[in-house]
Amino acid sequence: MSVGIGGSTIEKQLAAITPWAAIAAPIDASERADRLEKARRLTRDAGAAALLIGAGDSLRYFTGIAWGASERLVALLLPVDGRPVVVAPAFERDTLAADLKIDADVRLWEEDQSPAVLVADALRQAGGDTLAVDPAMPFVFAERIRAAAPSLSLVHAAPIVDGCRMIKSPAELALLAQAKQMTLEVQRRAAQVLAPGIRASQVIRFIDQAHRAIGAPAGSYFCAVQFGRSTSVPHGLPQDDVLAEDDLVLIDTGCRVDGYHSDITRTYAFGRVDADQRAAWDLEHEAQAAAFAAVEPGRPCEDIDAAARVVLERAGLGPDYRLPGLPHRTGHGIGLSIHEAAYLVRGDRTPLAPGMCFSNEPMIVFPGRFGIRLEDHFHVTDDGAAWFTQPSPAIDRPFAAS
């Protein structure tokens, strides 16, 4: 019988959760100033006069403004010399004042005015005609700015944005570590509420409540709960699975701490395990370990994906993305975005460097039968890698002893 699976209730587990005690410090003003200076240097190196960042995770990274993108332009214009300019709707004045964490020249626009003209005017005042544009900014905004300044040249800002955000500071690593450790504890408690007949939707609600109780105010950022054959579909099916004896269980979930993400997957047995499932789980565990062991500064990201695939192909799976085998990349960068550069996938030759953070999840899929995904995260160190959370020990003992 599996250890740590079942035997409790949703009510008991929620009552036992206490708020997380080891709270990581938020990003401070000094670190935000360093980010802006690095972005200025990279913008200058790119031959641009200024960097334009739209609403979303990168705007939060540089300014503290945690707003999602909408049809209204909200942006940071960062000249290589001079004060940052923040452009936003006038009716958001008070919310902006509460969220803005940097000193900036705030330029507000009314609903019948063009924010693109404000950006173009600010860029002219900065004395440049080349603008590096946030890769996540909607095309329509870039085109409106180009129309407002016909002589303007636009260049891709991905090297600038990724050059800043890929390398995490000690403060960022601490926030990521807290989020991931909180989610692992929620995963451990979710396993204990399982019982025959429970629906995936009930487990999803519990995980959201547990994330809130442990210290993530917004609850789960996402949650996938899959039982039995549904585990063979990497992102699940549009159905509400019902747990039966001897099913495999796959739970993938995460939360945010001060904007920084967790994303942890566990696959384990609810009851008996057949020989094929155990062998596949052990192979997944081996592939995950091989990817981790391959990490060293200077190696291209694609090498880590290759290390996991060698293990799987040696066992007769694949090759490449063929099934049964690994249908997707081995891992993704993570930070303020749940998926961000760089990526552990063939073709991404970004050199690994200390401070980079990645998922490690070389999922194995047997179509129509079952799938195994173990997902933990690591950060690159000076001489290899360090886990944020310890990998699962066994298919019938999914959580290490605390």
From TrEMBL:
SUPFAM superfamilies according to UniProt: Creatinase/aminopeptidase, Creatinase/prolidase N-terminal domain
One annotated GO biological process: proteolysis
Domain Creatinase N-terminal positions: 35-167
InterPro entries (UniProt xref): Creatin/AminoP/Spt16_N (IPR029149), Creatinase/aminopeptidase-like (IPR036005), Creatinase_N (IPR000587), Pept_M24 (IPR000994), Pept_M24_MAP (IPR001714), Peptidase_M24B (IPR050659), Peptidase_M24B_aminopep-P_CS (IPR001131)
Domain Peptidase M24: 175-382
E.C. number(s) listed in UniProt: 3.4.13.9
EC class (word): hydrolase
Keyword Amino-acid biosynthesis tagged: no
Keyword Transmembrane: no
UniProt keyword annotations, A-Z: Dipeptidase, Hydrolase, Metal-binding, Metalloprotease, Protease
MF GO annotations: aminopeptidase activity; metal ion binding; metalloexopeptidase activity; proline dipeptidase activity
Name this protein carries in UniProt: Xaa-Pro dipeptidase
Organism: Sphingomonas jinjuensis
